[in-house]
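comment on this one:
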Amino acid sequence: MENGKATVGAVYNPVTKELFSFQKNVGVFLNGEKVAVSSTVELKEAHILLHIGRSLKNRDWGLDLQKTILASAKKNINLGSSALDLCFLVSGRVDAVIYGTMTTLDISPTIEMVRLSGGEVYDLKGKPVLFSSKPQNIIATSTPELFKEIKDVMKILPA
């Protein structure tokens, strides 16, 4: 970390033997090949990773959101690894990742990977997330248009 931002990082998936890595001002790579987010702008074409979280206050919100995403997106899956989820976003395998509760410090290198590969990680107000040790709701998308469409269907936001 330098001035509150990750400058270098890596995520290794031992199952697939894939190394996702980045270096500030250089780029994001998968096994040494440069990667970038998808150009998907419509929710109906998007592959979404959704993690509701275990928070009681998010449970009803998350279940309602799950129903909305199932009816709106092309596919909805859950890999179970926050860092790997965002690596799938940076490599164009998925188009958005939504977390009910996430401590952004835990995934700061992968947030920088998203930004360097052309995507963004937003809070629910549409501002780029800041690194925090407090859990927060976040939406990472490949394009601003996709974020807007996801935000528009999320009329049931937690307080």
